[in-house]
Amino acid sequence: MKSIEIIRDEHRSITAVIEGLRHVLAEVGAGRMAPDFDLLFTMFRYIEAFPERLHHPKEDDFLFA
Q1: 58 contacts: CB under 8 Å, gap ≥ 6
Q2: How far is 8 from 53, CA to CA, in rounded Å?
Q3: Cα–Cα distance between 35 and 24 in angstroms, integer?
Q4: Residues 29-42 pLDDT 10s
């Protein structure tokens, strides 16, 4: 069941980035933080790229084979 644990860990990682993004956007929206476009770009890029390149292939190979 190591593969299931890896997939769960990856879900937690993706969730952490999404929650971080929500926090940053809330802080910027409230005027407590200046937009950090490099940070925002990196977070969006992770959310877009990580699942397609590394996460979904594992799900396809181990969960939905």
Answers
A1: 3, 6, 7, 10
A2: 16
A3: 8
A4: 999 999 999 999 99
